[in-house]
Amino acid sequence: MRSEFDFIRNIKEKYDLRHVGDDCAVLPKDSKTDLVTTVDLLVEDIDFRLAWTTAELLGVKALTVSLSDVAAMGASPKWAMLTIGVPKRLWNTNFVDKFYEGWTTLAKDHNVELIGGDVSRTPDRVVIDSILLGEVPKGKAVLRSGANPGDSIFVTGSLGGAAAGLILLESGFRYSKVGQRRKALITRQLRPTARVDAGKHLMKRGLATSMIDISDGLFSDLHHLCDASGVGARIESENIPYDENLDAIGPDILHAIRSGGEDFELLFTSPRKKISNAKLPPITRIGEITTNVGQVEVIDGARSAYVARTGYRHF
Amino acid sequence: MRSEFDFIRNIKEKYDLRHVGDDCAVLPKDSKTDLVTTVDLLVEDIDFRLAWTTAELLGVKALTVSLSDVAAMGASPKWAMLTIGVPKRLWNTNFVDKFYEGWTTLAKDHNVELIGGDVSRTPDRVVIDSILLGEVPKGKAVLRSGANPGDSIFVTGSLGGAAAGLILLESGFRYSKVGQRRKALITRQLRPTARVDAGKHLMKRGLATSMIDISDGLFSDLHHLCDASGVGARIESENIPYDENLDAIGPDILHAIRSGGEDFELLFTSPRKKISNAKLPPITRIGEITTNVGQVEVIDGARSAYVARTGYRHF
User: Fold this and answer.
1) Between A257 and B305, where is the model more confident?
2) What is the SS3 assignment for A22-85?
3) What residues in B contact A29, CB-CB < 8 Å?
């Protein structure tokens, strides 16, 4: 029996899905501009649980996952299409209104215009398909394939918070009934932020040779980037910027979080050793691109290990 | 309790979904070209049943519904994104392969390039979201809003076959076990054809003042067109080109079929009284645009009646 992860990876590879190797597909628009496009499917009880979140937060997250893909290209989000399938039990509630309210609030922040979509009923569960189009100066989209041996590897912000939030939710903790630090972790899972401005800034300044957003998990997404670039990577474990609240769930599950996804931070490479700017979020150098094609090596003190190609598994 | 139709219509209207009033959204691309985009969600047991069709035919239909939207703008399909959610019971079958096989065969016929998409698992049912982008010369997209009083109303091909095919399937008939005429009706339901060339031709020659594809049903879609154009319509019942095989399901259900959808023929208006061309499918004049805003009147011999705003209801 194939695992879910294998099944999905096989289909994506076989049919060049998930944007033919990048976070967005890139199309020529006009003489100065390229168009980027991304699609993300969210299915109830696979990608979210209605008992854990609110309709508004779900609207926010549906747009965020797509904003993050556009951010990873260094592009500016512009137009969205939003498809939603809703089961009968939600027709007479304010679910759809609240969902759009959340979506619209975030869309306004990013000047994203809703240009269409579709709506349907479903037998049991909510399904959402989020489609986002963006623009980037011609030839300037930051791809996964541009990393060179010797480049430094950077991440924005901090990692592991979204996975820790998921672990808390799965363990029965709820936002309204936990302390501030656990609230912060659950917020990273239910109300993530896309690094749109950081992505644009890195593109404009030509700082990133390659980029991807961390949706599957640090090591899984780093593998994607290395594969696309035909390179390898060496990561210094102690430099990974874990979420400051992670120990609020106990130190024993850090290994689970190391490969946890949905942080929606940016992972990118640059010839520079240091990158900082008042316009950027905290950026941490976590390692270096190597010639060891397809291999991700993690240095942990005196020990070194190659990381398996696993990543985020949805609950 | 709201009906499904009301629920969906309310959401579409409230949030300007379903392409903000046209079959596709229109975006500026470059100085010579506009971009059109469309999204269609297909949910198992709402929009299709796996027991009635094959994975290949489902792939064909997923693309066809979007091709039809692009055709209704007079545009040329170019790029597609395809999202599919698949339940575990289908992982180890050839379902996904056959689905893409069907999709790809039709995509090649129309020079449509798959540029991305997403894949996910689902708890129970297959969901498909079909996204299609196309191009049309700047300002030339044929909208729903251009019909003028006095224009003739035309349809391509024939109507009712897809609805009749659905009735046969719902009644337990299966393609492999019926005669040629019933096979033809089931084919119209399971393997519809989009009028892409006809749409392009009408756009190029400037023949259509407004256009929509018949996906909800003749009268429902005609209401949409009239609403967008701020006009009314008078239809001569005897001129409606019903599918030649319709009587294979018995004459008593013709009333159900009159409002049946999914024929994916084009409904358009033109100042001309007659349109025919070797490059076009059969085109029939079925009535005339009136000043009777929002009203669709049907003349049936000596009788005349206004048609209620109902349309295709999914099973």
Assistant:
1) B305
2) CCCEEEECCCCEEEEEEEEEEEECCCECCCCCCHHHHHHHHHHHHHHHHHCCCCEEEEEEEEEE
3) 29-30, 35
Let me know the angle formed at the C-alpha of A133 by B9 and A116, rounded to the nearest 5 degrees: 10
The CA–CA distances, whole Å, from B123 to A126, B99, B119, B196 equal: 11, 19, 13, 35
Which residue bears the tokens 């729903």? B144
CB contact under 8 A, A11 and B39: no
User: B111-122 pLDDT, tens per residue?
Assistant: 999 988 888 889
Class of domain B144-306 (CATH, top level)? alpha beta
How much is the pLDDT for B119? 81
In chain A, where the domains are located: 4-137, 144-306
Residue A60, min C-alpha distance to chain B (Å): 16
Total Cβ atoms within 10 A of residue A288: 18
Greater confidence (A281 vs B314) lies with A281
Query: By CA distance, what is A20's nearest residue in B?
Result: B116
| pLDDT recorded at residue B63 | 98
Report the predicted TM-score, pTM, of the whole model to 2 decimal places: 0.89
Q: Take residue A167 and report the two structure tokens written for it.
A: 């672990």
The dotted CATH code for A4-137 is 3.30.1330.10
SS3 of residue B100 by DSSP = helix
B190 three-class SS: helix
How does strand B113-122 pair with strand B76-87? parallel
Show residues of chain A in contact with B131, CB under 8 Å: 39, 81, 131
Question: B174, B260 in Cβ contact below 8 A?
Answer: no
Write out pLDDT tens, residues B55-85. Answer: 999 999 999 999 999 999 999 999 999 989 9
First to last CA, chain A: 18
In this complex, do A37 and B133 lie within 8 Å of one another by their Cβ atoms?
yes
